[in-house]
Amino acid sequence: MKREDIDGAVIRTLSTFVYFTGTKWLRPALLIQ
To answer: How many CA atoms does the CB half-sphere of 7 hold within 13 Å?
Structure first.
């Protein structure tokens, strides 16, 4: 993200959320800065 000059990303899909956190939630949301 730094290389592409992106300030943050919102993760809303379950598979990506599980990849980053190792946790399954019914309605995932994760902000990465």
So the answer is: 0
Q: Provide the whole-model pTM.
A: 0.52
Helix H, strand E, coil C: the string for 1-33 is CCCCCCCCEEECCHHHHHHHHCCCCCCCCEEEC
Backbone angles phi, psi at 9, to 5 degrees: -145, 145
Average pLDDT over residues 3-31: 85
Q: Which domain holds residue 9?
A: 1-32
Contact 30, 20 (CB under 8 A): yes
Q: How many domains does the chain have?
A: 1
